[in-house]
Structures are given as structure tokens and as C-alpha cells.
Amino acid sequence: EEPGSNHVEDEDKHNINIKDKEQEQDEQIKLNHRYNESLSFESKFIKINICTPDGDIRQFGVLNMTTISQLKSMIAKQFKIPERKQELQYKHTRCQSILNLGQIGIEDGDTVNLIELTDDQIDMKNEVKITLKYKDANQEHILYCSNMITIREFRQEIKGKIPVVPIDEQLLYFEGTDLTDEDAYLYEYGINKDCEVEFEWRKIN
Questions:
Q1: Count of CB atoms within 10 A of residue 191's CB?
Q2: pTM of the predicted model, to two decimals?
Q3: CA angle in degrees (0–180, nearest 5) for 131-148-94
Q4: Kind of pairing, strands 86-90 and 93-94?
Q5: Residue pLDDT, tens place only, 22-36
């Protein structure tokens, strides 16, 4: 037996295990995505508990159709913690902005943990403040997201903030440029700092 051959075999086994785990995680993500898309539930009013970083608990009355993005806006007003500094967790899992409470499985009486992010944690995410301004209308929404997400993912963030607007009916413009390349990252369009993005709802009959 050649010297070091056992070490090489162990390394190969380790690499195979990592690949297997990655494939398993990818499959789980796909399953969760399909589950969230197909999940249907009755719209109803529920009361949830928000547990703050210092251990205080406050009750919120909301519809289970409320998205996490919308819930963050409510929390910002009540707790004076900016949306960009909030991370919400349910059962030790981070809640995605686009999902609503019912999709996540949050029910009446459940507790959602509010974590306040530090400035360093925010900087690590390359987060920018994007003011979404309606075209030809005096209305706007504020979004906080990384500029390292794609246009496709950005549309999902918008859907979380404005659930009534379908993703395929969003028209987006930045400094006169139509944001149409779904796989391009925000920074590739020059979105590297806090800015405004023009938004238009093109209804499809």
C-alpha cells in the first residue's frame, strides 16, 4: 500500500459526502418552493407575538395573507427599528420577504422572533435602499435589498412589498434603462447605492 493512499481515499469520501449534502439541500429547496407555490389556505385574521431582541413580546393583529415585507413595515412603525435592520425568524428559520404568514405556516398565537442586525451585518449583504416610484403617480414604496440579487429576485422582493401586482406585470426602469435582463444583477445595471427605480404596473388582460 502506497504511503498516504488512505488519506486520499478519505478526502475523496469527504468530497463525495459534501456533494451528496449539496444535492440533498438543492432538492429540499426545490420541494419547499413547489410547496409554497401550491399551498392554499383560507384568508383570516390572526394574532401573532413579536419577540424583540430584549425579550419583550408584543401582539400584532394581522391577516395571514400579510407578507413578511409588509410585516416589517408595521414593526418599523411600532418598534422604531428600520426595516433594513430587521431579520424575522420563525422556528429558528429566517422568513423570506416575499412569503406571507400563511405560506410560512404562522398561525394564530405563534411567536415570530425579531433580530436587530448590526451595521456590519448590513454592509456584508451589500444592502441598498431602493425607492420604488410609481410612474405618473404620486406613490412610492421603500425596499431594502442586496444589489447582488438578480432582476428576477428583485421582482420577487417587489411582489412581497406590493402583493397585488403580479411579477409578470411589473415594468422597471433605472435612470431611463428598462430592467429586462432577468438574470442580470442589480449592480450590473449600476445600482450600487441608495437610489430610485421607476415602477409601472402593466396589466395583462
A1: 20
A2: 0.68
A3: 85
A4: antiparallel
A5: 555 555 444 444 444
